[in-house]
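Write out the bound-state structure for iron/sulfur cluster.
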Amino acid sequence: MTKLKCIKNSQQLVDEGFANPSDLTTLNEISKKYTLTITRQIANNIDKSDPNDPIALQFIPSQEERLATPEELVDPIGDQKESPIKGIVHRYKDRCLLMPVTVCSAYCRFCFRKERVGQNERGLSRSELESAFNYIESKKELWEVILTGGDPLFIRPKLLNEILDRLESINHVEILRIHTRMPFVEALKIDEDMLLALTRKKPLYIILHANHAKEFSQEAIEAIEKLRRCGATLLSQSVLLKNINNNVDVLEELFRTFVRHRIKPYYLHHADMTKGTSHFRTTIEEGQALMRALRGRISGFAIPHYVLDIPGGFGKVPINHCYLQSENTHYLVEDIKGTQHAYPPTSV
Ligand SMILES: *Cc1c(COP(=O)(O)O)cnc(C)c1O
Ligand code: SF4
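---
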């Protein structure tokens, strides 16, 4: 078991051959600001001989992480603005986020909450958790509670079970949702106790975050299978990332891989305006072109919604290319090859 230790500092990255000794100073500087942790599962999945390894690019800091562009924000999607109480973000009427922890097993360098996640901030205390439950209980319109963070599967199974029991006991909360990256970073955490905690009476939707088909290692696949067997519905979310998956073949393979493992692709996020992440961001035009190229090429249900979380806390909206144009007397609809066709006007 000694081989399972995480990489927690730049020296280790250098010692294990994941970074050059000449980068040590920069890496130290970055990891002082944003936590560095790479699990053994991730480390084992990195091909050190490939300078563009899609796993390495997601988890090993690069020089550019020190740069913050003027448009980048500390709270890119406006979480704070809609937080009525610690640990809750309530933006949409019928659903809210509950964040019991702000830690993860490994830290993605492009993380949209990197100013909070993995920082010194503690998770919710017992009494803060209790206040969060009371808030959810008092808001009768809350139909769904979304556990996110941090990674909710980082929570000890016993406590996670208590949290889910408590949420399930609230009558108006009909749907439970968990956003996690755990199968792809530390599948070992999904043990028997965790699976028991995740076996629910109410519908549980688990949104699995992965950005490249290479993340589906054997242990990840086994953990996904276990999650499915415990009765949860599995959906995916990915982030469009420059040099990692901004390529139609790579996205095609990613979405096919989700579907192959019975995961319905749900969202492809346009990378948020988080500080120090400009090297990961593509243009929206590029994202739209990629999504357009996928239409017709893979099953309709293998295509996620391409979404943008509007900076300032205005929520997520689809930002796909629009195939329909309204003319004076009719519509123009574009087919997947780009040819336009007239469509009759809507009669009233
Ligand atoms: C993303 C998000 C949700 C979930 O949105 P869906 O479109 O239902 O997946 C809910 N609340 C907040 C604050 C969010 O940022
Ligand atoms: S798993 Fe999610 S919350 Fe955790 S570091 Fe990655 S993007 Fe951020």
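---
DSSP finds eleven helices and twelve strands in the chain.
The chain has a mean pLDDT of 95.
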